[in-house]
Queue: 3 jobs
Job 1
Amino acid sequence: MDTVEGPVLVIAGPGTGKTEILAARIANILLTTDALPENILCLTYTDAGTVAMRSRLLQFIGPNAYRVDIFTFHAFCNLVIQEQADHFGLRNLTTISELEQFRYVREIIDAFPHDHPLTRSTGDLHFEADRLLALYEIMKKEDWSSAWLAERVDEYVATLADSPEFLYKRQTKGPDGTVYKKGDLNERKLREELRKLEQVKAAAASFDDYQRLLQERGRYDFADMILWCIAAFKQNSDLLATYQERYLYLLVDEFQDTSGSQFELLLQLADYWDAPNLFVVGDDDQSIFRFQGASVENIRRFAARYQDSLTTVTLTDNHRSSQLILDGAAGLISRNLERLSNDKQLLAMNPEVATLPEPPELVGYATIAHETVAVANRIAALLEQGVLPEQIAVIYRNHSQSDEIIRFLTGRGVAVQPRRRADILQGPLILRLL
C-alpha cells in the first residue's frame, strides 16, 4: 500500500479487505503526491463494487471521495462517449432492450436457408436464440471477430484426426460388423464433433448480421461501448492522450473478472508510461465470470507485461471465516492447476469467528432430487430447533439449480427469499408473444 508509483499486483484472497486496500491506496496517493482526486480512476466490475468503493473511500478522505472517478468499465466508456459525442457520432443511437435482442436474433434465424447448420424444421424453430445471444456477448467482451473465431475453429479441426480423444481406446465392433483396432480413428465420433464445429462457425458468421441490424436500427448494447472506445483510442491518439493525461493513477478491483476487451482498454490507458501507476487487485482462485468473457489469464498477462517493474503483494489475513472453513477451502482449491501460486495460506484473523468449532461437512447424494429433499429436510429441522430463518442460506452455482428447492420448500410452507430478480422474459406469456 505504501508503493505509490509503478505497477502493483495485489493477490487478495476472500475476506482479506480488497476494498479497504484500494481506498487506502487512493488516500495515500492524495497524501504523498501532488495528484488531485480528479487524476485518479478506479474501475470496478459491478455497480455494487462502485457503491462499496465510494462508501469506503468516504471514510478515508471525506467529501473528496466524490471527486475521484469510480466507474464500472461500461460506465467509464459511457462517460468517454458522452464527452466525445461529436467524435463517436452516436447522438441518435439508443440502448437495445432485451426484447429487441430476442426479436433481432429471431429475424436472423428466420432468414437462415433451409440447409443452414442452425436451421430446425421441427420443434422450437428459434431454439438457438439464447445460445446465439450468449455467443454474441462473449465475442464482444473478448473482442473476437467472426473471421477470427472461424480461423480458430479451422485450426482446431486440423488437429482432430490426431487427437487421442477421437481414437478407439480398445478393439471395438461397429453396428455393421466392422472391427476397429485400438488406435483406429473413430469416424463416427469425429463426424459428430465436426458437425458441432460447423454450427459454431455458422453461429459466429451470424454475429455480423446481428451487428448490421443494430447499426441499421440505431441500437447498441453495453458491450459495444467498450469496443467503440478501444477502436476510437486506436484511431485517434489525441483522444487517447486526453484520458491518459487526465488519469495519472489507475486502480482496478476484481481484476480476475475482467474480460479480454476490458483488459485491452486498460492497457490503452496505461500505455503512455513504461511503468504505469496501475494498481490491480484480484484473486486467481475467485474468477467466477469466465463465461461472461472473464479469465484469470489476464492476471498472468499483467504480471508478464510488467515483470521488470512489478510489485506483487499477497494478502492472507482473512476477516470473514473460521480457520476450519479456510483450511477446507484450501484443500479443494489447491487442486486448481491454473493457480498462480499454491503459497496462499489464508489465516483467520476475526476473533469472533476464527475458532468456531463447526467444520465444513461434505455430503453426496445419488440424484439432484435426493439432494433437494435432504436440504429441505435439514432446513425444516433447523427451524424446528429454533434457528431463525434469516440465519439460514442456500448457496448454489446458478439460478436454475435453485428453482426446484424453492418449489419444494414453498410446498412445505417454508417461506423463502430468493436473492435474485425474476426474469419476466422467461415467463410463458412473454415467450408466446416473442
Job 2
Amino acid sequence: MSPWPPNRGAGTEAEIDFTLEATDAGLLDRTGVGHAGCYESKRDFMKITKIETFVCNARMRNWIFVKVQTDQPGLHGWGEATLEWHTRAVVGAIEDISQLLVGEDPTRVEHLWQMMYRQHFWHGNGIVRGTAISGIDLALWDIVGKIHGVPCHKLWGGAVRDHIRLYCHLGGGRMEDFYQTDPADARRFGELAQRAVAQGFTAFKSMAVPETMPLEGLRPLKYAEACVKAMRDAVGDDIDIMVDCHARPSPRMGLRFAKVLEPFGLYFFEEPCWPETIEDIALIQRSVSTPIATGERLVSQHAFRELLERRACSVLQPDITHCGGLSEARRIAAMAEAYRVALAPHNPQGPVSTAASLEFGFATPSYIICEAVLDDVPWRSDVVREGFTIEPKGRIVYPNTLPGLGVEIDEEAIKKHPFEQEVLLRSFYRDGSVGDW
C-alpha cells in the first residue's frame, strides 16, 4: 500500500462546479467518484515544490543527480543528467527549466515533458537541454512509481523478461583500460578480456580500433584485427565481444574496419563513423553481416526515426540521460519494435542512469543487454542504495522490487566528492591535425 494519497489533477472551476453539482444530484459519491468509477474530484492535487541538482565527482566524469521534491512529506524523485565536460551548462539548464514545473502536478509526466520540450523557442533536442529534460523526467517517473508503490517497469505493463544481462568495458570496468589501452598491444587486449570474464561477465566492449586519419593503409586495420583476434582467442566463442569505434573513422575507414573484423563474430560494431552521416552508416550495415550499433549521440525520436527508416543499423543505443528520458526512450523503443531493431542503451554514467536503463529494459521487449560501469569508484555504495540485485555468475540482474527506480541517494555522502573539472582529452593525428576523441 502506497503511503501517499492518490493524485487528483488540477481542474478548472467549471470542472469543480460540475463535481459539486453532480454530487448533489447523486451522480457522484462524496469522494468525487462516479457510480461508474470514472471521475475524480479535482479540488486538490500534489505539487512540485523544488527541483535541485547534486554534483558528485566520480573520477572520469561528474555525476549530476536531479531531485524533484513534492509537497507530500518524504515524497521525492531522483533522476540523473550526467554529461561529460558540460556539468555547469546542464545544471544551469535544469535551473532554467525548473521554473516551468514548480507548482505543477508531478504525476502528469507526459504533460510536463511536453512543457519542457516545447515551451521555449529552442526545442529540447540539443544535447544540454535534452540532458536536463532527461534528468527531470527520470525523477518524475520515480515519483509516480513511489506513489503507486511499484517499480517503474510495472507502470509500463510489467516485466517482459526474468533477468537482464550486463556487459562491462574491457578489463571489467576500469575506464582507463577501455580508453587508454594501446591498440598496438594486442596481447594486453587478450589479458584484459580474460579479466572481464573472470569477473563473471559474458559480454564486454573494447575500443580496439585506433585513432585513424580519413584514409590510411593497412597499419590500423592490422592493429584492430590483431586486438580482436587476441580477445577472441583468450575468451573463446561463448563470450560476446563488442568493438566501439567512438565514431572516430571516416565512413570509408569505418567500412574497412567492419569488413576486417567481420570474421570474429562481434556481438555488435559500434559507431563506425559519425552518426550524422546516416547514409554512410547504412552502407556499412548493408556491406557486412555484423550488427551495427549507433544512437548514443542522438537526442530525439526524430533522429532515431531516420535511422530506422533508412535501415541504417541493427542495434539502437539511445542514452536515457540524453535522449529525453524514459518518456522519449519508450517512444523510440516503440518505433524500433516496428522495425524489429534491437535496443542496447548507452549507459556509461552513474547509478541512477543504470537503474533507469534496467527499469526500461524490464518493460521493453526489444531490449537485449545493459551497459554498466559498476566499479568506477570504490565508494559507490556509500552514495547510492540500489533496488536491483546482480547474480555474480554471468552478471545478470533481477528486477528491482523497490518503488520507482529503486534508488536513494545519500546527500551527505555526495558532499565528500564535490565537482572537479574533468580532464580535457585531446586527440591529434600523426601529422598534428585534429582527430575525433
Job 3
Amino acid sequence: AYIAAFITVWVYKFCVSRDLTIKLPKEVPGAIAQNFRDIIPFGGAVIICGIIDVVVRNLMGVPFSELLIKLLSPLFTAAETYPGLILIQAATAFFWFIGVHGPSIVQPGIDPIRLANQAENLQVLLAGGHPAHSLTFNMSLVGEFGGTGATFIVPLLLILFMKSKQLKAVGKASIVPVAFAVNEPLLFGAPMILNPY
C-alpha cells in the first residue's frame, strides 16, 4: 500500500506538472472537470503498478505483494521482540510529540502484521495450543493503557501534585476520557504535543 501510494503521488505530480491531463471547457463544473483531469494521472499509476506486478511475476514467479512480504518478514519478526514493541510505542509517542497524530502514521505499517498474528494466534488457540505472537491488536490494551503513552495515571498526578491551576484543570477535564483511552484532552491541554501556533 505504501509503495502504491508513493507511485500514485509521483505519477500524479509528473502528469500535472507536465500538463498531461484532460482539459474541459470552462462551462463544465469544477468538480466534474477535476475528475476528468485525474483520469490520465491515476490511470498511469494503475498501469505502472500493473507493469511492476507483471515483471515481478515473470522474473520471480510470485506476485509483487508476496515478494514484499517475504522481503519484509525479518522486519515483522523483529517487531515482535521487546525492542521492536518499544520502538513501535516510542514512534507513536514521538509523532504525537512533534504534532502529528501518531497512530495514523504508525498503525498502517503494523496493522497487517497485527492482523496476521492475531489470525495465527486464534488458529493455534482453537487447536488447543498456546498463542505465540505478541504483536496483536490486544497489545494496544497493555502498551497504550489510557491512550498513547500509557497516560492512565497522569490526570490523577496533575490533580494531586501540580501547583498550576491550568494543569489541575486539565487533569480534572481529562480524567474521565483517559479512563476510556481517549487522551487527546490531556495531550493537547498539558501540552504534551508540539503546537507552534
